[in-house]
Amino acid sequence: MIITTILYFGTIAAVVAITSIAVGLGESLISKEAIKCIDIQPSSRTEINKTMLLGVALAETSAIIGLVIGVILISKGLNYPYAGLPLLGIFLAVGLPGFTAGLASAKPIAMACQSIMRQPFFSNKIINIMLITASFIQTPVIFGFIISLFIYYQIPFCTNFTQSIALFASGLSIGIGGIGSIIGLSQYATEACASVGYNRNAYFRVITFTFISQALVETPVIFALIISLLILNTNIPIDSFATGVAVTAAALCTAISNISASISSGKTAASACRQITLKPELYSTLSKACLVAQGMLDSFAIYGWAIALFILLKH
Amino acid sequence: MAHFAVFKEDIAYPFAQFGLTSPFWGVNLQTITATWIVLLILIILSIATQLALKKSESENAFGFIIISFVDNFKNLVDQTLGLFHFRHFTFVASLFLFILTCNLVSIIPGLEEPTSDILTTLALGITAFVYTQYSSIAANGLSSYLKGYLKPFFVMLPLNIISNLATVISISFRLFGNIFGGLVISNLWYRAISYSFITELIGILSGINLTITLFFVLFEGFIQAFVFAMLSLTYLSLEVRAEESENHTAEGKKIS
Questions:
Q1: In this complex, do A211 and B219 lie within 8 Å of one another by their Cβ atoms?
Q2: By the CB < 8 Å criterion, does A256 face chain B?
Q3: Is the pTM of this model over 0.90?
Q4: Nearest-CA neighbor of B177 among A301, A298, A223?
C-alpha cells in the first residue's frame, strides 16, 4: 500500500516535471534562435515574432498534456490494491513521448525562424510548412495520452497482479515505441523548414513530399498503438504469471524494433528533401527512391510487430 | 471498451469437416461481401471506361482521367523495370486499383475495408510473391533461378530463402497494420461520440469526423495502396532485371 501511494504521487509529479523540463529547454532554444534572427534581420521582426509565438504554442502541447494527466490523477484518489504498475504505465505512455517531443519539436521551429530570416517575403508559406510538420511531431504524444486515459479507466477493474502487468505493458509499448518516430519526424521537419528557406520554388514539391514521407515515418507508431490496444483487450486469466510476461515481451518487442527503424526512416526522408530542394526537376525520381527505401526500413519494425502479434495470439 | 481482434468475429469454417478449424482456414462473411462489392465497382468502372473511350476525346472528362492514369502508371513501370512489359504493367496496375478500392470502400455505410482482415492482405502478398517468383523463372530460366539462392556462397541458402519469404510478411503486414489502425482509431472515436445526440453533433460540427475520415481512409488508403504496388514492382524489378542489366547499361552509356 505504501508503494502504491508513493507511485501515485510520484507519477503525478514525474509526468508534470519531465514534460515541463523538456518543453522549457525546447522553448528556450526557440526564443534564443528567434532573437538571433531578429538581430541579423531586424526588418522581419514581426514575422519572426509571429512564427516564434505559434511555434511555442505548438511545442507546449506535450506540457499541457502532462498537466491534464496530473489533474485527472489528482481529482480522483486511487485506493486500489493493484494500482502501482498501471500508474507506472501511465508515466511511460505520457512521460517518454512528452519529454522527447518537447525537446525535438524545438529544432524545426528554430529552423523556420532562420528560414524566415532568409526569405522574409515568403513567411506565410514557411509558417504553413512549420505548422504541418510540427503538428505531426505531436501525434505520438496524443496517442500516448489516449492510451493512458484507457489505462486510467481500467485501474478500478484490475483485480490481480497479472492484469496490472498487462496495463503496464500497454503503456510501455506506446511510450518507448513513440520515441523513435518523434526523433525521425523532427529530423525531417528540420530539413523541410530549412530547405524552403534555401529554395522557395521547391515549396509545392516539398509539401507534397511531406505528406507521403511523414505518413511512412509514422507507421511504426500506429503499430505500437495497435499492440497497446490489443493488450488492453486481451482476457487475462487470473494469476497466470506467464501471460503477464508474454504480454510485456510483446510490448517490448514492438517498442524496441520501432526505434531504429523510424529514426533511420526520418533521416532518409530528410536527405531526400534536401536533394529535392537542390534539384526540383528530379522530384519524381528522388521521391520514388526515398519511398522504396523507407518501405524497406519500415519492414524491420513490421517484423517486430508480427512477432508481437503472434505472441499475443498464442495467449 | 471496444473489442478488437486480429482475426474477425463471425467466421464460417468451410473446411471444418476435414478438421481444419484454425483461424487461417476461416472465411469472414463481412470481408467476402465487401470484396464482392469492390469487384462489382471495378467491373462497372471498366465498362464505363470502355464506353468513354469510344467517344471523341474532346468532350469526355472521364476518358481523359483514365488515359492520364494509365499514362502515368506506364511511365512508372517503365522507369522502374527499365523495359516495358505489358504483363507486369497490368499486374501492378490491377493490384493498385484493387487495393485502392478496397481501402476506400468503407466510405459506403455499413461496410468495412476487406484489407483490415489479415487474410486478405496475406493473400495479396502471396499473390505478389508467387508472381514475382514465376516471372523470375520465366526471365532467367529455372537453373539460374535456383543458382541465385546459392549466391554469394552456398552457406547463404537458408538466409536467402528466409529473406525471400520475409517480403511476404513485411508487405502484407504493412497494409494490414495501417488499415487496421485507421479502423481502430475511427471506431474509438465513434464510440466516444455515440453517447448522446449532443456529442455526435459536436463531432460533426467540429470537423474531427471529417479529419479522421480524410486522413485515415482517403489519404492513408491511397498511400498504402501506392506503397504496396511500388514495393511489389521493386521486388519484381530486382528479380527480372538481373538478366537485362548488361543490356540496360549498354543503352545508358549510349544515351549519356
A1: yes
A2: no
A3: no
A4: A223
